[in-house]
Amino acid sequence: NAGVMQNPRHLVRRRGQEARLRCSPMKGHSHVYWYRQLPEEGLKFMVYLQKENIIDESGMPKERFSAEFPKEGPSILRIQQVVRGDSAAYFCASSPQTPGYEQYFGPGTRLTVT
Amino acid sequence: GENVEQHPSTLSVQEGDSAVIKCTYSDSASNYFPWYKQELGKGPQLIIDIRSNVGEKKDQRIAVTLNKTAKHFSLHITETQPEDSAVYFCAASMGDDKIIFGKGTRLHILP
Fold it and tell me: Which of A89, A78, A86 is closest to A114 using CA atoms?
């Protein structure tokens, strides 16, 4: 029973480039959450999606960041025109049922902007 | 919005001793309190959770307590072992989508 999968595990981008982070939830899970973790900090909620719907994006920066969870395929977190401050670990979590229940995390994507 | 405070930020205990991590939350509407363990270079792993209708929950060497009146909850690890060394995060949720995390406690188990 595979867990939450994320790729790539490490991503290096130059300032101004685009970063695409992918997340495949656990089998049978239809809720996906993205969190960002800065060094020595806790995780900060970014966005919550169900298939083809953004449910809550209250933690997403207003510009350059977007997320989707299409009917087929993984969830994508997209960061346009990256800046140094975007360097962080980005974690995806999935949940099998209505919000408030257990969220299971993937291994994360560590984004470095040079 | 909800705010979760966690203490201490670093904790060192002798192998075999107990470790206690304490958290407070601000919103009395929070009703779900998970604890996560994060090892270096890995994602957070859910180790135990408690809901607001329960005061205490135990799973082998790990126990959590919840005081709704004081808005405190704690993680207790007994008979600590080297593999318990990691960063531990408490968190709170109001049963909606987001989980609010504390800033973490780095636990060192000393030989």
Answer: A86
